[in-house]
Amino acid sequence: MFWADAKKARRIKTYMWKHNVKFHQLSYREMEHLRQFRRDVTKCLFLGIISIPPFANYLVFLLMYLFPRQLLIQHFWTPKQQIDFLDIYHALRKQSHPEILGYLERVIPLVSDAGLRWHMTELCTKIQHGTHPAIHDILALRECFSNHPLGMNQLHALQMKALSRAMLLTPYLPSFLLRHRLKTHTTVIHQLDKALAKLGIGHLTPQEVKSACYLRGLNSTHIAEERCRTWLGEWLQISCSLKEAELSLLLHNVVLLSINYTGSRR
User: Fold this and answer.
1) What is the pLDDT of residue 30?
2) Can you tell me the distance from the alpha carbon of 249 to that of 207, in angstroms, rounded to the nearest whole number?
3) How many CA atoms lie within 13 A of 237 on its CB side?
4) What residue spans define the domains of the chain?
5) Are the C-beta atoms of residues 252 and 105 closer than 8 Å to each other?
């Protein structure tokens, strides 16, 4: 399966090179395939490096058996492992949610516009009381996230570390690298969102819907497909309304839109 993915990724890259096509000009499925393949290659490269010394391949097989979540790509997870491991990863990113929301509450006094301060207070209060925010509640704050105090270039190191954990990215990097990775990751999701809006959620398979929701912060493993489609539609309405300078709001939306969303269990 991995080799088939590698061949497909090579075909896409060859097409991009021959026709001078940029990543954001690809179709949704092509973009998503390249994004996931890059993550899989990272794991494979690590295994390849540690297997270079003589007889180290025996150690690699032992490590793969002991740490399948960390070392194996999803193709090699069993169905039960897939559910269990995705639950574990979501539990890890949920640990950062209180810290991210607490930071948003602390910066409210720094917002110069009284109307924006009121909207931010209302949003934080709703979320703290377990209410799923409406799309207009979030979009009303886009100005706060385009410049001081919550613009991408104004985020503090601790907030960027918390946001990195919420995105399942390593937080153990210098501030300038954290900012660069968050910008890059959020930009890719924004580009995927535009391509997905063009394709239409209705054309996604159930698994594609679940994967798309999980990437954007929702633990979709225990939520019915239709509820996932509804949530993904809300996400796209927000994302496709944002400009590049407002992508800090999309980054925070990983928490804002997912934290109180509930769906019927299968």
Assistant:
1) 96
2) 27
3) 13
4) 2-76, 94-256
5) no
